[in-house]
Specification:
The chain is built from 6 helices and 7 strands, in the order H-H-E-E-E-E-E-E-H-H-H-E-H. The chain has 234 residues and is of the alpha+beta class. The strands form 2 sheets. Strands 1, 2, 5 and 6 form a 4-stranded antiparallel beta sheet that branches.
């Protein structure tokens, strides 16, 4: 019993020392870094920038489209027609290697990190030839190579149509929203880990320079809501 009473103050003192060490290794070191510039937002943002540039390309969105094209030709009073149904996959990417230090700006007054993103790039389409379907014919197709020429024309037109669909307003908006969210998250996470919970990260595309900041606040619509809106506008 006596031994227990003598050890109790020692145990309490050990707990207090352990807590102090924990504070020193955690919040204490964080405060130290802030005082001496070891972990300021600019330094963290620079490190994040270098890490993202090393990733090279960021795939932010992907979609599948289907093109239906028809070609028709006539010769010697005969005609032939061919229809091609061709699906293709398209990726929306950001070339992170194009990010430069000048594209990342720290505003100390508003505690905002502003990132200018390189413009979105469309990769593809990667056509799915295994799922392609071709229909048609005609008398001219029997007596000439009209089918081959029409198929070639259809494939070129289908690829162009797939790219046109991919460049439409709705998928481009969804891809840009996804890109902004991914870039903002990539810069915000290291800042939050360093204790800068009050820092705001705002990412915008180079083509959006000069537009009001509040034009991108509403990013909560789902893909189904966008499709519903598009169907109602027809």
């Amino acid at each position: 019993m006596v031994t227990g009473r003598l050890n109790k103050p020692i145990v309490i003192a050990a707990i207090i020392v352990a807590l102090l060490i924990g504070l020193l290794l955690g919040g204490g070191l964080r405060a130290f870094d802030r005082l001496f510039g070891g972990g300021n937002p600019e330094t963290i943002a620079t490190a994040s920038l270098q890490s993202m540039r090393a990733q090279n390309r960021l795939n932010v969105f992907a979609a599948r489209y289907v093109s239906v094209t028809s070609s028709r030709t006539s010769r010697f009073g005969f005609s032939a027609e061919r229809t091609l149904i061709l699906p293709g996959d398209v990726r929306y990417e950001v070339d992170l290697a194009k990010l430069q230090p000048k594209d990342v700006r720290w505003d100390a007054s508003s505690r905002t990190l502003r990132v200018r993103i390189p413009d979105l790039e469309i990769a593809g389409p990667d056509v799915d030839l295994a799922s392609a379907r071709e229909y048609g014919g005609g008398v001219l197709a029997v007596v000439s190579d009209a089918d081959n020429r029409l198929d070639t024309a259809n494939r070129a037109a289908a690829v162009a149509d797939l790219r046109k669909q991919a460049s439409a307003e709705t998928p481009m908006r969804l891809a840009r929203d996804s890109a902004r969210a991914a870039i903002e998250r990539s810069f915000a996470m290291p800042l939050k880990a360093a204790g800068y919970d009050d820092v705001k990260v705002v990412a915008r595309f180079a083509s959006e320079e000069g537009l009001p900041d509040d034009s991108f606040l509403d990013r909560s619509r789902s893909y189904n809501e966008v499709l519903e809106e598009r169907a109602q506008s027809r």
